[in-house]
Amino acid sequence: MQWKQVLSTMKPYKPGRSTDEVKKAYGLENVVKLASNENPYGCAPSVTEFLRNASMPFEIYPDGHGTTLRTKLAKKHRVDEASILFGNGSDEIISIISRALLDEHVHTIIPTPSFPQYAHNAKIEGADITEIPLRNGYHDLNDFLDAINERTAIIWVCNPNNPTGSLIPSSEIVQFLEKVPENILVVLDEAYFEYVTDPNHIDSITLLERFPNILVLRTFSKAYGLASFRIGYAVGSPAIITDLNKVRNPFNNNTLGVTVASIALEDNAFIENCQKLNEIQRERFKAFASEKGIHMFDSETNFVLVEVPGDADEASEFLLQQGYIVRSGNALGTPGYVRVTIGSEEQTTGLLQAFNLLLTEKGR
Ligand SMILES: Cc1ncc(COP(=O)(O)O)c(C=O)c1O
How far is residue 134's CA from residue 140's CA, in Å, rounded to a whole number? Predict the structure, then answer.
């Protein structure tokens, strides 16, 4: 086969271990997965209720326009319906953007460590990539500006950043956008937007009128608790959305997925409650890390990146044996740390006990 040469340097995405797999491997009765930043509280009760009796014309192709969901989202964000692009998760939107703008003649700027799909897709398209290291876990947007050249097509900004959880202040985003040439697409990936509690944070969709070269990515996979339905969306200027739509597959979202997303959108109280509960448990992590003298990055998300004694793979394995699946920082570009999704109160209590055991084991 005459594969793109770059594929020989790449690996397929390796999903984390499932709870069933871990239960079997370690003979555990209870296993808690805190590895993929899913919502421990599930999804809105109205969605669960709907799914109990859901009957739809599944033999018919989905509405490729996602009309009902589109109308609701446009109203919620006060944008034109033509400003929205749906993807099979924001993962697919990242790949649509990359396919539409990147090739071997262009350049793209990516934070590191950050969400790996930006670099993964850019490599497949053969783009020239500049990776900008975080500074103390934060994007330094001046470094991004310095990296711009005449071939730069996309700048990726992950806000808050995965895996550090750090938030770029809105004022810095605005100052940055003022300096970015308007022919460069700035992607603001805001998968964890609903978890942000910083009162100074502004909704970047409101910046669109001033900066039509931005594209804001959001998802139903995190706070909305609908990861398995694969619904992500981008909000941008209609002109940009039109070009991206040329690359999108016609029926990339399914009927059930868009229906439950539009039901979920009605339940603001569920999202507000999840944000509140998440913040309470996030504070417990903070207090624990500070009491134990271990470093933890400031997080505005539903996960935390915490320092571990010794090797991160070994620490993850230890926590796995206690029934907690977390992500080793070795795989995320943050050796010496593990990324832990913030669970419910009970799950956090258990995880912190297991973490304490790990520290004791290592003499800390
Ligand atoms: C920063 C970021 N962007 C995008 C995604 C992809 O989300 P989805 O494809 O489920 O919408 C994730 C998932 O973990 C993420 O952390």
Answer: 7
Helix (H), strand (E) counts: the chain: 12, 12
300-332: string of b/e by CB count within 10 Å (b at 16+)?
bbbbbbbbbbeebeebbebbbebbbbbbbbbbb
How many Cα atoms sit within 13 Å of 168 on the Cβ side?
Answer: 26
Q: Is the pLDDT of residue 13 over 90?
A: no
- With a 6 Å cutoff on the Cβ, whether 95 touches ligand 1 is no
Question: What CA–CA distance (Å, rounded) separates 344 from 325?
Answer: 14
Which of 115, 196, 217, 341 should be mutated for ligand 1, with most atoms under 8 A from CB?
Answer: 115
How do residues 304-359 score in pLDDT, each as one tens digit?
Answer: 999 999 999 999 999 999 999 999 999 999 999 999 999 999 999 999 999 999 99
Residue 2 predicted with pLDDT over 90: yes
Q: Is the CB of 120 under 6 A from ligand 1?
A: no
Q: Is the pLDDT of residue 15 over 90?
A: no
Number of the ligand 1 atom closest to the C-alpha atom of 221: 10
- Which pLDDT score, from 0 to 100, does residue 289 have? 98
Tell how far the Cα of 2 is from the centroid of ligand 1, in angstroms. 31
